Structure formats: structure tokens, C-alpha cells
Amino acid sequence: MPHMLSIIIPLYNEQDNIEPLYAKLDHILPTLGQPYEIILVNDGSSDDTRERIDVLAKRDERVRVVHLRRNFGQTPAMMAGIDMARGHILIPMDGDLQNDPADIPRLLAKLDEGFDVVSGWRKDRKDNPIKRNLPSKIANWLISFISGVHLHDYGCSLKAYRRDIIKGVKLYGEMHRFIPIHAAWQGARVTEVGVTHHPRIHGESKYGMERTIKVILDLMTVKFLDKYAQKPMYLFGGFGLASIACSAFFFFFMLFCKFFLNKSFIETPLPLGVVMFMLIGIMAIFMGLIAEILMRTYHESQDKPTYLVDCTRNCKE
Ligand code: UDP
Ligand code: MG
How many domains does the chain have? Predict the structure, then answer.
């Protein structure tokens, strides 16, 4: 039985793109010889998107539709599609015709080679060079450097995932772009292929430069959760101890100045440093303890294990 594909498309005010996008998908997907479904997520559009995708769903039962109550953003919309998906292979893509369904077979070929995640790389990106492409280049470089997962284009929506990799992933903020990183950290094989990128013809982009900032903040969260989620005290406590050590250093330096250089305490800023670093250090340690309690609540209230099993032998109940 060939693997079933789920194509997942978030849509926010894309009324004029829906018909041509469906036509392209309908041209490519049946030639693949695999069962498929197209999941269209209407992310609270205020134009005609709602009616137009309902028409498609009536016409073709492989088109499945989710209408969200209001506009939640691209990442939650994608998450809604992932939760709905029944396929073994999940392929998210943009609904504005900037991604090309003709690239899907190449993504699938990579999965067949044994990879778990295949990420699209818009080698010749057709967006505003200053406002979009440059910040994105910098962000991509930074993400690659910090995460240690070396891809060129995290922001490209067109990707392909094996279902078991994406199952259980929870997406917040702009984090859909970090799924490959999350997967790689859990032992998945990740690769990328060049994909075509078209300029936007109908409708307009919903994003500008400010997204780069959000992405960088998300990256910090992801990195923190990966390294310290199970032991937040190591980070907070480490910082706290370093701060208390600074305070101690200032304290002894202050005494040295007083007794050997004959400088009174109030003649230097040192007492201020002693108090400040001591307070910051103690607060950081207490914050670490609170974070430890939160982490325990998180894991224990949901029976979340602190490890992930790949497979077992002779261990079935
Ligand atoms: N999108 C969405 N909700 C939003 C913003 C965007 O579902 O709040 C969808 C949008 O319809 C498109 C995809 O996300 O299918 C990418 O959006 P856009 O083309 O605006 O982003 P860009 O290509 O400029 O990065
Ligand atoms: Mg776009």
C-alpha cells in the first residue's frame, strides 16, 4: 500500500489564488500514484476564501477544509492542518502560489532515499530583496549556527515530513520553521532540496521585516527548551552563582582598597556592585528553583517521559 500524502495549506485572504492552486495540485498529485488529501485551512479570512474552498470541497472529496474562527496566524493554521492530517507523509505549503506543487515529487524522492524531513530551499527567491531576503539570509545563518542543523532556508513552507516525526510536535509563535531542527535534535535525518519560488501575483504578503525579530526570539526559546528544559536550574543557578562570585570579588576588592590603598568605601562604586550582584544572584537562583517546579509540573501532570524510545524488541505487553 503506497503511503498516503497530506498536503496542508494555510490560507488567509487568498481568494484569487485558490482556483489556480487547486488546478496545479490536481494536475500533479494524481500522477504520483499515491492516495492523497488536500487540507485547506482558512485562517479567519475576511474575503471570499471561505466560500471558494467550500465549493472545492463539494466538488472533490479529497479536499478537506478547516475554518478557524478568527485569524490566528500561519503557524497555528498549519498546526490545525497537521492535527487533521491522516497521511503518512505531511507536506505543508503556502497557498499564495509562491511554492510550486511541481516540486512535490522531488521532495518525495528524497524521503524515499531514507530521509525523515526534506526542507525546500528557495535558491532564487522572488521577494523584496531588502525588506525580506536580506533579513531572512541573516536569520537563516544565525539559526543554522545556533541550532547546528545546517539548512539554507528554514522559512520555506514547502517541506515534507514523515508522520511519526511531526506527531507530538507543538508549535508556538513562528515556530513552524523550526520543525526540522526539533526533528534533527530527536534523531531524524534531515536534508534539503532546491525548489522553485514564484513572485506573488494575487493578494499581498502578510509579513514584513518585524518577523525576523520574532524568529530570533523564537530561536532563543527553542534553544533554551532544548538545552535546559529538563534542568533549568543549571542555567539560572549557574548565572546566579557567577553573579554572587562577582559580588564577593567586589567585596574583597573593596576591603583591599580600604585597608591597603586607604580609600574609603564611599569613594568607589564598589559597595553598589557588591549589593547589586548579590541581589541579582540570589534572585536568579530562586527563579531557577521556580523553573524547576514548573518543569516537574509540566512533565508529571502530563505523564511526559524525559526520554524518547525509537523501538523495542520483545517488550510488547
Ligand atoms: N497565512 C495564514 N495566516 C496568516 C498569515 C498568512 O494562514 O495570518 C498564510 C498565507 O495565506 C499564505 C502563507 O500563510 O498561504 C504564507 O503567507 P505570506 O505569503 O503572506 O508570507 P510570505 O510568503 O510573504 O512569507
Ligand atoms: Mg507568500
Answer: 2
